[in-house]
Amino acid sequence: MGATLLLTSCKKQASETTGWEYNSEKWGGFEKVEYYGQETGPNLTLIQGGTFVMGSTEEDVTKEWHSVPKRVTVSSFYMDITEVSNINYREYLFWTKRTFYADFPEVYKRALPDTLVWRQKLSYNEPFVEHYLRHPAYNDYPVVGVNWIQANEFCKWRTDRVNEWILKREGFLEVNVNAINEDNFNTDAYLVGQYEGTVKDMMPSYNPNGTGERKVSKIDGILLPDYRLPTEAEWEYAALALIGNNPIKGEELVTDRRIYPWDGHSLRYAVHGGWQGNILANFKRGRGDNMGIAGGLNDNADYTGPVVAYLPNDFGLFNMAGNVSEWVMDIYRPSTTTVSDDLNPFRGNQFKKLDLDEEGYPVEKDSLGRLVYTEVTEEENADRRNYKKSDYRGYKDGGGGDSYEDFTSQDQDEFASDVKYDFGVTSLINNHSRVYKGGSWNDRAYFLSPGTRRWLDEKQSTATIGFRCAMSRIGSPMGNEFGASHIMKQKEER
Question: Cα separations (Å) of 406 from 196, 393, 401?
Fold first, then answer.
């Protein structure tokens, strides 16, 4: 967790554009705050971005050719050090039940993981059905049975709870643990004035016609960006952790590629010391061998293992190979690596906007306390060059199972592809097919390579798929050391 960030306004600076003084009632009240960089949220670590070759580093044993190597660049971002655990998810369930169950029980029921994913026709797994999610023995094991939609809802909930905690910590808000339904704290609703809560301290305001006080707003930089799932490119980059193969700080030098999140071809720790010879991940070594023999268990886990088991990679991330596979944001397409952009590649954009009333204000938040968003339209984007439509999940790849003949001539150009996905007839791929990455406790070593990729419908879940959260980095990609305060200091020295 980053240090406490109680941001204060600088009252003596003047605009370099107009000469007018900032933070002064006499000069109109335009505000500029000192900003010391983005706080690192709970359980996150900064992943410094850069260029790497995304795609397969192993022989393509499946012969699908859907992970063709391609050089891309990923911006700096934050990522969970561990997979989301059972106790993390139970906290979410507890809050959801307390907040919505009386009037909207379906919200809680939608959040429940499918514990029946443990059942197999010819395996005895009933103890996991009964105990895995809720028994304290599995508190720190990765949650499973969570589909892609549920994972995204967890990210939204986490964003609001962390920002509410920050406002409480900084003395701006009194938390109401008894809030129900639409009265719960929501970050977006707070920022547009649709959540008031019990206000404690206020930020100073220099509006000459104001009260001298105001609520926290986006210009203060106190609230964190959204927690979310990582993109496929972010996940793969973080898993490879090639920063460990750059021996000279400040130089563009990577000495070796990696097959796994560690160096070499071995699945055991090769360096002399207490770890030498130990298995580096939780995976299935061979048919009928999920953990070795008594007195010599190779990975100490028959099914999942603790989220902090095994050595972390060079970014400090645990279990980026093995334990559970992990959901990422992307829509699955075989051609992803050949048609995507090379800076922050991602397939799955659905552009939306706030639903506004006739006076231009956001319409009233919904019954769960969230703002209402609608899809952008082609009419309002007629003069845009960068995008026009709302949904680009099937861009340049056949539309994703929709009827190609129904597209306009412009659509056919944007969504043209040599491949057509006739969902349910010749293909199971559509705009709800989501990528998951990394090997699991029940996978062979091939899937431990970060370049491998698989997919599943966003409403389905398994006993081998979990997830971890990510967050965008706002500001300098190098971290807070080279943030706004560093630049300002340089200016003052000059």
Answer: 47, 16, 12
Q: What is the DSSP letter of 24?
A: -
Given this structure, which CATH class describes domain 44-170+222-348+436-493? alpha beta
Contacts of 60 (CB under 8 A, 6+ apart): 67
Burial level of 408, CB count in 10 A (0-12/13-18/19+)? Answer: exposed
- In the sheet that holds 453-457, the strands lie side by side as 453-457, 433-437, 325-331, 465-466
Q: Which two tokens stand for residue 466?
A: 């979990």
Task: Report CA-CA distances (Å) from 166 to 163, 229, 473.
Answer: 5, 21, 18
Residue 187, classed as helix, strand or coil, is helix
430-453, pLDDT tens digit by residue?
899 999 999 999 999 999 999 999
- What residue ranges do the domains of the chain occupy? 44-170+222-348+436-493, 349-386, 394-430
| 396 phi and psi angles, rounded to 5 deg | 55, 25
Distance (Å, whole) CA 303 – CA 283? 9
> Do 110 and 52 contact (CB within 8 A), yes or no?
no
Name the 3-class secondary structure at 242.
Answer: helix
User: Could you report the per-residue pLDDT of 394-435, keeping only the tens digit for each?
Assistant: 888 766 654 444 444 455 566 666 567 777 777 888 899 999
Three-state secondary structure string covering 1-16: CCCCCCCCECCCCECC
- Contact (Cβ atoms closer than 8 angstroms) between residue 437 and residue 236: yes
Summarised one tens digit per residue, pLDDT across range 165-208 is 999 999 999 989 999 999 999 999 999 999 988 888 899 999 99
Q: Please say whether the beta carbons of 224 and 38 come within 8 A.
A: yes
Q: Are strands 465-466 and 325-331 parallel, antiparallel or unpaired?
A: parallel
Render pLDDT for 94-130 as a digit per residue (tens, 0 to 9).
999 999 999 999 999 999 999 999 999 999 999 999 9
Q: Which of 295, 319, 315, 317 is nearest to 307 (CA)?
A: 319
- What are the helix and strand counts (H, E) for the chain? 9, 18
pTM, whole model, 2 decimals?
Answer: 0.91
> What interhelical angle do 148-169 and 86-100 show, nearest 10?
80
The Cα–Cα gap between 481 and 425 comes to: 55
- How far apart are the C-alpha atoms of 94 and 376, rounded to whole Å? 35
